[in-house]
Design goal:
Elements lengths: L2 H30 L6 H27 L2 H7 L2 H14 L5 H16 L5
């Protein structure tokens, strides 16, 4: 079996961790729309902290299996995930510049394994 295929489960854990991390931004934005010190405000901030805890565990699992440099440089994909999630949750517009930026990030991550 090719070494790339052996890393696939580890890469999927890393991607899932980044999706979870992206949900923190969404939860915090929802909290910011609530009245300060209201029940909903604290609920969404608590959810954000809970999501960060889940992310921390997933990040540690991923770091055991993937090089730190690869994992950390791949973290920029969270910007793309936040943009996509915000589009569907908050109906935020994705501009042409957003697409260019997201494309650069994705191409950079794809080229990452080929660095010397």
């Amino acid at each position: 079996m090719n070494n790339s295929y052996k890393q696939l489960p580890n890469i999927l854990i890393l991607i899932f961790a980044f999706i979870v991390y992206s949900c923190t931004s969404i939860s915090m934005k929802i909290a910011s729309c609530k009245d300060v010190f209201s029940y909903e405000f604290f609920l969404y901030y608590f959810i954000s902290i809970l999501i960060l805890g889940i992310y921390a565990v997933l990040w540690q699992i991923a770091l055991k299996k993937i090089q730190l440099t690869i994992a950390f440089m791949s973290k920029s994909i969270t910007l793309v995930f936040v943009m996509i999630i915000a589009h569907f949750v908050f109906q935020e517009r994705i501009s042409f510049n957003n697409l260019i930026g997201a494309s650069i990030i994705v191409v950079g991550i794809i080229l990452l394994p080929f660095k010397k």
